[in-house]
Give the backbone structure.
Amino acid sequence: MSIIYKRETCLRKDLFDSFIKMFVEAGWEVLEDNGTEKDYRIVIHSKGSNGRSPMYLAFYPYSGQDALGKPSYDIRKNNSTDGLFKWIREWDYENKKEISIYGNWNRLNFFYRSPKLTYGGELTLSQDLEMEYYCYADLDRVVFIAIPNETILKQQKPGQAVQPIVHFFGIPEETYVEEKNEPSYSCAIHASSSTSYIGMDYAFLTCNTPKRLLDNFAYQNSFTYLTCYPAPAEGGSNNGTIMLWDLYIAEENVGLRAKLGFLQCFKPNGKIITDGRSGDTIEIETENGIEVYLPFWANYFSYSSESNYKTTSSFGRDITYLAIRIR
């Protein structure tokens, strides 16, 4: 599906609210919340475009699970930069609270940082740091890409990674495997270029399990691509051509499970700048005219004892470079 991303700008302190706004404008509902963490989070819900694919996400604008409710760690009001989220599995509408969640706490990073879920080692930046972001949202998924002003960021925090951060929340474009859950829908996921997933390299979180398997809990997976020639590793770079490829979800015991869509990967040809800011674009000729794509690099990761010596970007190996359509 060739969708076009919208570009917006804001200050760093407004980034969390801008992120939530994308869900709401696409038709996701903010739920009334009486849970024990109601004062510290926003719970978002969608039934999906088919009305039968319930998704519940709780977003926390605090820099650590040990900082909930502490004003000095509220990323909307102070210099803390990154929040948290939970993917809720079941919601009690009568009592207005979660029944169960997929997995555990997870990082909602807008900048590259360690995968720690506590506020220890947090990144702090000016509230007025200029940001731009690209976004796409519908009832099935939200894709959000945050890009800080490089010049100001380097002045405030020399050595801090300046690459764009991408988040994908929701259902892939195409799904191929019947799920066991009722109502049935396939593999709602969270993928990001800065995560707290440390079970495997280049991991993303998968919420549901195919019908043929026994386990129905969240687990980590990684992307692949369909092998053909030239593969993304070659990318046609010898003659300057750039080829865009889709990302796929494949599992050893299931086979090909889904096509992510909405994000493409490519191998750079050495002729374009892939920082998301240079103005360089990739143009694709189609029967309906020229499509314009923004290229960016998405594999700056934390690799240390804090990440269990696993890379904390969902995008790596031959899918380090991503592109989104902007015109």
